[in-house]
Write a structure and sequence with these properties.
Helices cover 50% and strands 12% of the residues. A six-stranded parallel β-sheet has the order 3-2-1-4-5-6, sandwiched between helices. The protein is α/β, with parallel strands linked by helices. The longest helix has 15 residues. Helix 1 runs antiparallel to helix 2, helix 3 crosses helix 4 and helix 5 packs parallel to helix 11.
C-alpha cells in the first residue's frame, strides 16, 4: 500500500469546537445577548444542522436579530479562520510523516473562503502536499470524487490505496471506505460508531499519526 494519508480538517487537524466556543462568546458579548446565549449557540451547533445558513436562520429567529442570515453567515466565515489553530505537535507529526515518505492531503467539506482561510492561517497549507475543498470542487464527502481529487493532486491514484483520518462516521469513515482507503476514526464522543468499521479508533489525531508512522515499515 502506498504511503498516502488524507485528513479531514475540522475537529481532526484543527479544534473547531474550541474555536466555535470562542466565536459564540464573542457573538453573544458583542450583541449583549446575555450569559445563556453562548450555551444556547453551542447546543444548537451540536445538533449537527445540515448547513450554517440553517444554523444562522435559527439564530436570527431566536434572538430577533435584524441582520440578514447571509450577513451573519458571512461574518462567521470571515472570523473563524482567525480563531482556529493547529497544535504545534500536530504540525510536527505531519512533518515527520512527510520526511518518512508519506504524501499528505486534506479533504474537507465547507465553503471555499472559510476552509481555505483555516488551512492557510494555521500553517497547514505548508504542512501537506495538497488539499481538496468541497466549496471549490463542487463535490462533497462522502462522495469519492473529493478523495480522488486530493490523491491526484498528491501525484498518486486511489487505486493504490492509502488512509483516511477523520472524526465523522459518514463523511470521513464511510467516504474513505467507499474510496478504498483504510480508515482511522477520531472518536470525540459526538457520533455513534460508524456503519463501516474503521481500521483504528483513536481520540486524538496525534494517535492517528502514530498509527500511520508505524504502518508500511
Amino acid at each position: 500500500m502506498q504511503r498516502l494519508a488524507l485528513f479531514d480538517l475540522d475537529n481532526t487537524l484543527i479544534d473547531l469546537d474550541g474555536a466555535f466556543r470562542i466565536w459564540a462568546e464573542e457573538f453573544a458579548g458583542r450583541r449583549a445577548l446575555g450569559r445563556e446565549a453562548t450555551n444556547w449557540l453551542i447546543a444548537l451547533d451540536r445538533e449537527g444542522l445540515p448547513h450554517r445558513e440553517t444554523f444562522f436562520a435559527k439564530v436570527r429567529e431566536h434572538f430577533a436579530l435584524p441582520d440578514p442570515v447571509e450577513e451573519l453567515w458571512a461574518d462567521y466565515r470571515r472570523r473563524m479562520p482567525y480563531l482556529v489553530h493547529c497544535r504545534p505537535e500536530v504540525l510536527v507529526g505531519l512533518s515527520e510523516l512527510r520526511a518518512a515518505g508519506w504524501l499528505l492531503g486534506i479533504v474537507t467539506n465547507g465553503t471555499a473562503d472559510n476552509q481555505l482561510g483555516k488551512i492557510q492561517r494555521t500553517g497547514l497549507s505548508d504542512a501537506v502536499d495538497a488539499y481538496a475543498l468541497s466549496g471549490i470542487e463542487g463535490i462533497r464527502k462522502p462522495g469519492t470524487g473529493l478523495f480522488e481529487i486530493a490523491a491526484r493532486r498528491c501525484g498518486v491514484s486511489l487505486a493504490d490505496g492509502g488512509w483516511m483520518v477523520g472524526d465523522h462516521p459518514v463523511t470521513d469513515i464511510g467516504g474513505g471506505h467507499a474510496a478504498g482507503l483504510r480508515t482511522v476514526w477520531i472518536d470525540r464522543g459526538t457520533w455513534s460508531i460508524p456503519e463501516h468499521s474503521p481500521d483504528h479508533m483513536v481520540t486524538d489525531v496525534i494517535h492517528a499519526i502514530d498509527i500511520l508512522r508505524a504502518a508500511n515499515k
